[in-house]
């Protein structure tokens, strides 16, 4: 069996007619015999719209092919509180949950993830307070409901992830998250202060260390919007194939058709 994973589809930013897209995606997933379809976040800039879309896709593919999704930072901007984001907000929402597929010894653990500023350049010499202030002033995430610090939010990610890994025991684990789990995937631009500050909000190196400690087989993530070759560290292989933006002012696609980009960036994993 194989599962398919996508990330950073940004259906609203890419100005797509998602209702016309759903039947094409459903037909493709069924034709290629996907055992499940997972999305690692950033689908709409509104959690409720993401929910509506994924339920439409689930209905289109049928109940035998489970669809699950995470919330990236874009999904969390509107339509959901922090408390709701940490709850079972929807049956298809995979955050802090585990999906088991019948007939497989693989478990799929989902967690939105977050960040703790550990991926910022070591020579930037900024305090956590300075990163937090910059985020509130300049970054999209400043609009996300969050009654605690980024460090504490990331600490919850690590705690719930480790609990899920312990529960998985000796089973093969595929981990799906939105944010970057390892410094090796980062790109820095010393002459661009805005981007250098933003790197603090990309993810956490502590997550990668934890996943490798538990010998997680595969990790799929996004957020960085740079398609990169798979990389393996120890027993863990990382997959980073975001769809990204196909805009005139910011084009991250190879071509100019969303469906083709979605197909080409799907991560297929054996379960």
UniProtKB/TrEMBL annotation:
Residues 29-226 form the Calcineurin-like phosphoesterase domain. NCBIfam families: acc_ester. This is Metallophosphoesterase.
């Amino acid at each position: 069996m194989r599962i398919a994973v996508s990330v950073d589809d940004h259906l609203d930013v890419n100005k797509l007619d998602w209702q016309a897209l759903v039947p094409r995606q459903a037909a493709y997933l069924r034709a290629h015999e996907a055992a499940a379809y997972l999305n690692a976040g950033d689908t709409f800039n509104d959690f409720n719209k993401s929910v509506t879309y994924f339920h439409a896709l689930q209905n289109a593919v049928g109940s035998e092919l489970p669809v699950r999704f995470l919330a990236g930072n874009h999904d969390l901007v509107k339509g959901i509180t922090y408390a709701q984001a940490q709850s079972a907000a929807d049956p298809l929402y995979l955050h802090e949950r585990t999906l088991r597929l019948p007939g497989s010894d693989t478990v799929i653990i989902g967690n939105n993830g977050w960040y703790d500023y550990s991926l910022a350049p070591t020579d930037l010499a900024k305090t956590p307070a300075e990163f937090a202030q910059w985020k509130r002033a300049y970054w999209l995430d400043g609009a996300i409901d969050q009654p605690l610090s980024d460090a504490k939010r990331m600490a919850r990610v690590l705690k719930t992830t480790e609990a899920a890994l312990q529960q998985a025991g000796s089973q093969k684990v595929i981990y799906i998250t939105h944010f970057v789990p390892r410094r090796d995937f980062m790109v820095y631009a010393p002459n661009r202060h805005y981007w250098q500050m933003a790197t603090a909000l990309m993810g956490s190196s502590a997550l990668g260390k934890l996943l490798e400690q538990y010998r997680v087989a595969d990790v799929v993530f996004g957020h960085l919007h740079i398609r990169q070759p798979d990389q393996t560290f120890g027993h863990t292989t990382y997959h980073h194939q975001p769809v990204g933006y196909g805009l005139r002012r910011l084009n991250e696609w190879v071509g100019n058709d969303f469906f083709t980009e979605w197909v080409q960036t799907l991560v297929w994993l054996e379960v």
